[in-house]
């Protein structure tokens, strides 16, 4: 893995911080569109990027949250037309946690100082 790629991935320490901070899927905790979810979809958890890796989103705690498979797929695929709404909720969640949260600092830039 290149140095560049490592900046976009959540490392083990950051994953642990996010898991402890969130305590489970942030969307499940909101009760967000649970209809149709299978039990296994809600059990499997991963860390979601707010700004995705494909857009150079950094692997830092201010850019991530826990999501179950159901909600992570819904966010990533956007096939239910809920992506914009989910990103808004995700953004609000991160802004509540980090009062100085700034979306521009979540993107990898060769020329800027990172968090």
Task: Please characterize this protein's 3D structure.
With 115 residues, the protein is mainly alpha-helical. Helix content is 44%, strand content 9%. The chain has six helices and two strands. It has a two-stranded antiparallel ribbon. The radius of gyration is 14 Å and the shape is globular.
Main sheet attributes: strand count, strand direction, barrel closure: 2 strands, antiparallel
Structural class computed from helices and strand pairing = mainly alpha
Helix content: 40-55%
Strand order of the largest sheet: 1-2
- List the uncertain runs: none
Q: What Rg do the Cα atoms give? A: 14 Å
| Strand coverage percent | 5-15%
Question: What does the overall shape look like?
Answer: globular
- How many beta-strand elements? 2
SSE topology sketch:
Blueprint: H1 3-8, H2 12-22, H3 26-30, H4 39-43, E1 45-49, E2 64-68, H5 69-77, H6 83-97
Antiparallel strand pairs: 1-2
Short description:
With 115 residues, the protein is mostly helical. The chain has helices at residues 3-8, 12-22, 26-30, 39-43, 69-77, 83-97; strands spanning 45-49, 64-68.
């Amino acid at each position: 893995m290149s140095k560049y790629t490592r900046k976009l991935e959540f490392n083990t320490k950051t994953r642990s911080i996010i898991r402890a901070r969130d305590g489970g899927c942030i969307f499940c905790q909101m009760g967000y569109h649970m209809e149709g979810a299978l039990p296994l979809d809600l059990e499997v958890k991963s860390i979601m990027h707010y700004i995705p890796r494909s857009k150079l989103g950094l692997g830092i705690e201010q850019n991530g949250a826990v999501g179950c498979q159901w909600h992570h797929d819904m966010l990533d695929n956007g096939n239910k037309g809920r992506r914009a709404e989910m990103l808004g909720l995700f953004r609000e969640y991160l802004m509540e946690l980090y009062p100085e949260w700034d979306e521009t600092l979540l993107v990898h830039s060769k020329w800027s100082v990172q968090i």
